[in-house]
Amino acid sequence: MILPILDFVNSNGDIKALESSSTAWRFIGKAFEAVGIQVSLVALCIIVVALVSLRQTTTFARTIMISMWKERAGREIAVRCFRSVLSSRAHYIEGFGQGRFLVLLNDQAQQAAALLSVYSSLFALLVTFAAYTALVIITAPLASMFALLIVGGVAASLSYYVRIARSLGHRALAAREQFSNFAAERYRGWRLIKLANTLDIEASQLGVRADAIYRARVAMARNSGMIMLLVSPIMTAVTLACLYVALVHLALKVSVVTLFVVVLLRLIPVSQSLASQRQSIASFGAGLERVQETLLTSETLKEIDDGDRIFEGIGSGITFEDVNFHFEGEERQTLTDVTAAIPANKVTAIIGPSGAGKSTLVSLVPRLELPQSGKVAIDGTPVTEFQLASLRRKIAFVPQNPFLFRATIRDNLSYLNESVTDAEIERACHLARADGFVRRMSQGYDTMLGEDGQRLSGGERQRLVLARALLSGARILILDEPTSALDFESERVVQEALTDIMRGGDITLIIIAHRLSTIQGADHLLVLDSGRIIQSGAPTVLQRDDNWYRRMIEA
């Protein structure tokens, strides 16, 4: 855009002379003639302004579009990671870590999406660089070749800093994960920290992890600054060297040399941006690699859902036949040659010492885990033949540490069945002995609970979770140590609720327990020790022989 103006001024507006001496000017003359405009300095300046405006409009539109793509991609990657991790096997989810999970969704997914804008900017810069390079080659071929050789050497030398940026990106991500895991864990243990008076120690430990993030990010900034520090003076030196060669050795016209120098000066920020984008790719690439690694691992450990039968309910019972199970990466067997039966519409208690494999055994029923060998069946049909959603819809689980969402009581109760009515909610709460304390709360069923229902007592949380399980319409109810953390009165209330639930006679209740009071009303017992079934049968039968259950009673 500058060269035609300089030529026009230098020739005193002699269009014919310009057209006879330049192919470009012949094109310009024909273009002006086609639109019926006389070539003038004002017209050339107006065209320059129009072209600059067009460029800026295009840049604005591209910026908005890339921002939309980036945000949409960040959302899609975060959602995909969320689904991928939570659709994998239970042991993988448990080992993933809350802090790592949050960093994956908040940081790594967004870094991966940011590569869209980085690559877009890189493409635009490369196009600009190519256009400028073509222009200087046309203007001054020999001087351009000299400049390109030097610029190529500079670009190759800067690759060292790009490799450093990639390493620092991985280091910063690892530090961020450690920081988030530590902070999340200490937040969950705030009561222990207060009672132990270790806040200063924990804050100091958090500071150590924050320092690791600080050092990694400062190192990244320093590395990026080194590129900016080197590119500008080097490109300036290249420009001056080319100017010297063009004037002294090549004797080029002043207008040509001016254009050449202007273009080289324009290449300085372009070169800086190219180096910066390469470094950004190296830094953000760490987040993309971590996202890819998580997606691949999650896909490998994804739950298998290849059953085609609809699970309607339980008729005769659940059976385990020669079941063997161990967690991936562990040689120790968690369950060994387990053969047992759980009768339908009865109360079966699974007892045994800690680490015996009780929770693992019941996790095989809803297929949270799959045995390496053997068969788990309901009414003689292997659980793997049922559609996963239909199977789990009829199984409810009440964990030892009940979980509630940061939502209203009503929302928590209807989580497993959104179509429940107010009457059904009230009936389930009455059955679970939760209606009394709910009515006493400020807004009843519309009372907002804090995180994990922390403002409720252990017994109240347990009863709400039990009511939620009843509202699910499940035919198999699994309770993992339902009263282990409760006081005597809360335990008595929960026991009464379980007794009332069983009076219906249409639900199979499986209780994992250590306490005798929890299993007193059981119809059937399974005794596990070191991953093996050592006794099974009715409580009255097992009491007659010298066995683990009888010794437990005597103790």
Provide key terms for this protein.
four-stranded antiparallel β-sheet; 2 domains; about 10% strand; Rossmann fold; ABC transporter transmembrane region fold; about 550 residues; 20 helices; alpha/beta; about 65% helix
Walk me through this protein's architecture.
The protein is an alpha/beta fold and 555 residues long. The chain folds into two domains: 62-170 and 226-298, Up-down Bundle (ABC transporter transmembrane region fold); 317-554, P-loop containing nucleotide triphosphate hydrolases (Rossmann fold). Helices cover 64% and strands 10% of the residues. It has helices at residues 2-10, 15-21, 23-35, 41-86, 90-96, 98-139, 141-188, 190-196, 199-249, 254-300, 358-363, 388-393, 409-413, 422-431, 435-439, 458-471, 488-503, 516-519, 539-542, 548-554, and strands at residues 317-325, 335-343, 347-351, 373-378, 381-382, 395-398, 476-480, 508-513, 524-529, 532-537. A six-stranded mixed β-sheet has the order 6-7-8-3-9-10. Strands 2-1-4-5 form a four-stranded antiparallel β-sheet, with no helix packed on it. Strand 4 (373-378) and strand 5 form a beta hairpin. Helix 7 runs antiparallel to helix 9 and helix 7 runs parallel beside helix 10. The longest helix is centred in the middle third of the chain and has 51 residues, at 199-249. The N and C termini lie far apart (96 Å). 30% of the residues are buried. The mean pLDDT is 82.
